[in-house]
Amino acid sequence: MEFFYYWFHRVSHRVRWFWCAHVVHHSGETMNMSTAMRQSLTYTLNASHFFWVPLILFGFEPRWVMLALAVNLAYQYFVHTEAIRRLPDWFEFVFNTPSHHRAHHGRNREYIDKNYGGILIIFDRIFGTFEPEAAPVNYGIPKPVNSYNILTLNFHEWRAMFRDARQADSWRQRLGFLFMPPQWREKPSLSAKIQSE
């Protein structure tokens, strides 16, 4: 389960289609347990539930998959805090902790796209996405939403993504705006640069 959660969470940051739903959770600029409750209304729109289908295809009963996911999410409720600084080193090495998750929620350059684990942090260590909390964390997203309106929070990134795709010059760009990382902008080709000179 944890392996699939890691990839679900990583894709939710690295593919704009999935980021559109997940960005709601990261839009808060403080870290406390209420941040854990800041969830998107649009997770079903982007088909996030398909990340758990392989577990069912491997033979796990859907109810056990859902229970494991619920336990994973319940654990994460407690890592959304500044009240706990660091836990013993052995625990910090294996598990996702408040320290690791604070870094995950940072918009500091060194913390962007790090620490995707749910209960465990070992897949971040294996796949090179682990970053310990060192510098003070600046919470939130790179381009703040500046709104508490529930509809704005849930749909601002969807609007921006579809606007970018609509204004794109090619199908390649349109697909890029949908499925590349959120900050993706296609670099002009060499021939386009030469023509503009």
Would you spell out the secondary-structure blueprint of this structure?
Elements: H1 2-14, H2 16-26, H3 33-37, H4 53-57, H5 62-77, H6 89-94, H7 98-104, H8 122-127, H9 150-167, H10 171-179, H11 190-196
Structure description:
The chain is mostly helical and 197 residues long. It has one domain. It has eleven helices and no strands. Helix 2 packs antiparallel against helix 9 (150-167). It holds the Pfam family FA_hydroxylase. It comes from invertebrate metagenome. It is a multi-pass membrane protein. Keywords: Lipid metabolism, Membrane, Oxidoreductase, Transmembrane, Transmembrane helix.
Q: What is Rg?
A: 18 Å
Low-pLDDT runs:
189-197
Number of domains: 1
Q: Taking all residues together, what is the mean pLDDT?
A: 90
